[in-house]
């Protein structure tokens, strides 16, 4: 009897189990069959090595066995007799298979091996403990095994059902079974760390935006159809197009990057060109419909190459009814872009084609009314007139189950070949000058079920290239078995029972849903290599320019540590600054100051930098003096000290470190000396900045600087101000010191500047002294203290329409408000701007991080703007509030729920907006009835609308029965509706709600696929 234990989470073995059959470790064939699963992979070599160990309790803590060879590689056993983990000493045994010579092996080496490690009784080899695993051995992972192979006490003691202990007489055999496997693709069990798709396959993948894997698989298929890329797509004129508005240009750019990039390519421009928003990129669309819309958009842009797409993808079929007993036939020839074939009940592709063209007899009570012949027995069917060079076959893996009243996925086994002759399915009159033999070019695969899954593509880019798997951003080689057998569907084939049980669930739901075949006689033309010269010159030029810009930005980022930014305040920027200090440096505060900035090497000398600054502003160097701004303890930023002129070799970095150590950048004030021939201001003078508060204009702007003696009276500065402002001498002024945000104090004119504690860089604000009557006649704020309070609390609020409407007069606008103002003031000012009754405006707050609707604001006259805004720990530069222009007052609306449905057509483009105002006590059925009045439902459909809610991650859905009360639906929420009919449209509902409307397929029509990556 033997015990099998798999105790290490690092290995891929199964759970512990008991083996009833007596199997000897020395019976290699039987032992391997019992303990090493058959994965159905080709075996390169198989070896067994046994290592006899005595005096176990006296062994060293770490041992390695003699080396042995298997599969062209040297191996050995790595043993820790008393454990190699954090477990207590002498608690466990750790044992590994070790690649013996990783450092001497060539760069990039690897070996794929299945192995079983066994400790057995030296006298009775049927008493053993075993664990098995599989691993890709590489330089970074050259040993693999089991840290907790077995508890040591279990090895030294008899276990239940065993006649003796595994380690007996302090001795045991340690055996390793190694099966080295062939790796024809080079990626077997690859961890894909540092994997380079371009280097390994010559191709790169596409980035997944959330649920765009279905699109990525189709795009890769179209890209590898080189005739489509070069002759059809690249020849479309797009010189004057924008990539986010032109599908043709966006696709050209994607194809160009797939051809020339070394990294995965993004598709955001392409989805935007379809008119999709971010939500659409997280919802699965149907591949067939997407392909048709894509081709329609490209065909509409073609001029010189009109018909190129049809020539490639469009075939013809004839639907006919032919009488049996009279000479009468009714037929109609139609074009097709793809063929939808049944999977259920069909063994393979050939049977599906036979089913497609199967003849239906019209006889008995179902006779055909032939014109001029009356009721006749007849044959009804379809026959192909021609197949296109590139044939798209849609396998009907999704269908409507009438019994379940739901969509289901068909996972039945359905085989398809590398080559198929379609001649037998053509009309007798078809051109047969060339064989109608088709070669498999691509397999588009869906892995998952109806409600979730993933798409990828298997493509053979040309006759000589091996098959490749395009799985979003990764491209890997695959075997023929992975192309065919693994994607037929049904149960796993050809594996041992134990292994089949492990993979059954995965295999069942991974199968082909679309096949691409190319006519063999046309393959050389369709897959002809595409060269750089074939790329449109304007496209190459535009993308090369973008590449150079990106490379420049990348270099700038890489070299950023060598540079710092110097921002320079000038008298001109100060004169336009309205706020605290000399400029606004914190981007969180509004409005940020736009200051001249210089990117400076940290090792650049001050003299060189000063020359640059002087030249930039157009002053001689001897007129320029630069002051360093520092962060004061009271949270102000003020000029503190001029940079010394007697050390010209001083570097910019040293200046920053010595004079403004707490700053990442260097902030400077440019002091212009009017006449360098005159002496500098006296040593006891200070540089003071002036600001003018204009009561009539309600503005507070910089008015330059002055040098004043510390001993001078504060009142003396009024003479300088009146002269500078060209006011009448003796004009009475009030002076205020800007101490810090929230602290503005009236100054005492009789005190000296020293007594007032004024120093270099301080700010004095002045206003004309006015009588109380004059003050009352002025605007909102009569003095700087009030106005500074407004500045401290002002906020830019962006008002955006909640629902985008084409005929909207005011798509977006901004208002500057105070946080202390209330809801009523905000509503009034918004109404004035929109020329709309404020009582008929409704507002919705948004999340500060992404602008997504948050909650509807209740009308509250006492609620302040600060309370409406985001919490204090989030300090956005602007606040976004959504507004709705209503036809009723928000007081009345409190008893109703406002809904808007945006109806979009088959191309997923917005067509119309339908607003609803329903009582909160109404039901979801009432909503459905209102929707039905505004949309056109097909006469043959069920005329029913199903409303349901999809979770934010898109993985689950909750269906409404119709009896739910509208007022009980939480806000915001995403709702969806399905109209029971053939494929149709998608719409968007907002309550802050989203409603997607589409139709159920009728019986035997193509199923709608709504799954996610």
Automatic annotation (TrEMBL):
<dbReference type="GO" id="GO:0005829">
    <property type="term" value="C:cytosol"/>
</dbReference>
<dbReference type="InterPro" id="IPR002083">
    <property type="entry name" value="MATH/TRAF_dom"/>
</dbReference>
<dbReference type="InterPro" id="IPR028889">
    <property type="entry name" value="USP"/>
</dbReference>
<dbReference type="Pfam" id="PF22486">
    <property type="entry name" value="MATH_2"/>
</dbReference>
<keyword id="KW-0539">Nucleus</keyword>
<dbReference type="GO" id="GO:0006508">
    <property type="term" value="P:proteolysis"/>
</dbReference>
<dbReference type="InterPro" id="IPR018200">
    <property type="entry name" value="USP_CS"/>
</dbReference>
<keyword id="KW-0378">Hydrolase</keyword>
<dbReference type="GO" id="GO:0140492">
    <property type="term" value="F:metal-dependent deubiquitinase activity"/>
</dbReference>
<dbReference type="InterPro" id="IPR001394">
    <property type="entry name" value="Peptidase_C19_UCH"/>
</dbReference>
<dbReference type="InterPro" id="IPR024729">
    <property type="entry name" value="USP7_ICP0-binding_dom"/>
</dbReference>
<keyword id="KW-0645">Protease</keyword>
<dbReference type="Pfam" id="PF12436">
    <property type="entry name" value="USP7_ICP0_bdg"/>
</dbReference>
<dbReference type="GO" id="GO:0005634">
    <property type="term" value="C:nucleus"/>
</dbReference>
<feature type="domain" description="USP">
    <location>
        <begin position="204"/>
        <end position="520"/>
    </location>
</feature>
<feature type="domain" description="MATH">
    <location>
        <begin position="46"/>
        <end position="178"/>
    </location>
</feature>
<dbReference type="GO" id="GO:0016579">
    <property type="term" value="P:protein deubiquitination"/>
</dbReference>
<dbReference type="InterPro" id="IPR008974">
    <property type="entry name" value="TRAF-like"/>
</dbReference>
<keyword id="KW-0788">Thiol protease</keyword>
<dbReference type="InterPro" id="IPR050164">
    <property type="entry name" value="Peptidase_C19"/>
</dbReference>
<dbReference type="GO" id="GO:0004843">
    <property type="term" value="F:cysteine-type deubiquitinase activity"/>
</dbReference>
<dbReference type="Pfam" id="PF14533">
    <property type="entry name" value="USP7_C2"/>
</dbReference>
<comment type="similarity">
    <text>Belongs to the peptidase C19 family.</text>
</comment>
<dbReference type="InterPro" id="IPR029346">
    <property type="entry name" value="USP_C"/>
</dbReference>
<protein>
    <recommendedName>
        <fullName>ubiquitinyl hydrolase 1</fullName>
        <ecNumber>3.4.19.12</ecNumber>
    </recommendedName>
</protein>
<keyword id="KW-0833">Ubl conjugation pathway</keyword>
<dbReference type="InterPro" id="IPR038765">
    <property type="entry name" value="Papain-like_cys_pep_sf"/>
</dbReference>
<dbReference type="Pfam" id="PF00443">
    <property type="entry name" value="UCH"/>
</dbReference>
<dbReference type="GO" id="GO:0031647">
    <property type="term" value="P:regulation of protein stability"/>
</dbReference>
